[in-house]
């Protein structure tokens, strides 16, 4: 993937934002269990960071995916993953279908303020019994006049307790599971919408994650995104860009973790010499750096092909699988080289060890990725 001077200018803007507006406040936000998302998003919006691939008519920059991945990579250099996760939900999970298939009215009402940072969005797909198995969701929207009446609940919703609107996947008919689902924009202020207390997670503490309940929520049918029954297909399409975003974001986290660990082992002396002088240690760093570059090449290749309009389902799934596993390997290895300091809560390696573990679960588990790869390789036995 070729990066232009425009890419690099955007990279500098994103990195400066992370260094000045996010990293200095991470400890405070982690302890609070959330960050001031509307304030931070407003600053991001003023810099154009929330609408990189979105239509210019809605305040976006109208650029291609490669620019978005540059920003995702830089936000991966946040000391904690929560803010980047919240941003990724806003830009690459809650709004892509809205931008691509939503009516002008819907885009004006919800996409434009989301790009400006005035609205916070959340994607409401997973349910307690249906995480990666999207077809099994039970939340339903039935027609009543010119409205939908929505009942159900959604689980593990990032930005859930702070969102202004949800991009909700719900069953709108009794058709087959892949043809009975629709995406509907649901404002959070509507009667019948409520959220749980923030869920207590292993990591990502600075991001508000909640269960969301819909109890006889009335929504105008014009809040439907695209065509009724096309929700599953749109969600699957959305997943591919989401997974590439996750991979690019992982690259930033991997680089940060390895860089800071190398620096620490240069400064930390044991038995009269720096830790990095042990051959095993610096050989291990060489191995990890090689793995990171392999992931970078795969991610960039998939993104480049996506930009030409090609189906990258297999490559995006491969990259997502590799990213999740490599995050576990690199953060665990690096944590070890910090010794006792690595077991401390506010250490960069332990922070990323906790925060990035979700990469092998959210957006499709490793096992789901393996299943997709198998199917796209046509390896399944046929009757």
TrEMBL record:
Gene3D superfamilies: Acyl-CoA dehydrogenase/oxidase, N-terminal domain (1.10.540.10), Butyryl-CoA Dehydrogenase, subunit A, domain 2 (2.40.110.10), Butyryl-CoA Dehydrogenase, subunit A, domain 3 (1.20.140.10). GO terms for biological process: fatty acid beta-oxidation using acyl-CoA dehydrogenase. The keyword Repressor does not apply. Residues 229-376 form the Acyl-CoA dehydrogenase/oxidase C-terminal domain. GO terms for cellular component: cytoplasm. One of its GO terms (molecular function) is flavin adenine dinucleotide binding. Its cofactor is FAD. It holds the Pfam family Acyl-CoA_dh_N. Residues 4-118 form the Acyl-CoA dehydrogenase/oxidase N-terminal domain. Residues 122-217 form the Acyl-CoA oxidase/dehydrogenase middle domain. Signal peptide: none annotated. InterPro entries: Acyl-CoA_dehydrogenase, Acyl-CoA_DH_CS, Acyl-CoA_Oxase/DH_mid-dom, Acyl-CoA_Oxase/DH_mid-dom_sf, AcylCo_DH-like_C, AcylCo_DH/oxidase_C, AcylCoA_DH/ox_N, AcylCoA_DH/ox_N_sf. The keyword Oxidoreductase applies. It comes from the Bacteria. Keywords: FAD, Flavoprotein, Oxidoreductase. SUPFAM superfamilies: Acyl-CoA dehydrogenase C-terminal domain-like, Acyl-CoA dehydrogenase NM domain-like. Belongs to the acyl-CoA dehydrogenase family. This is Acyl-CoA dehydrogenase.
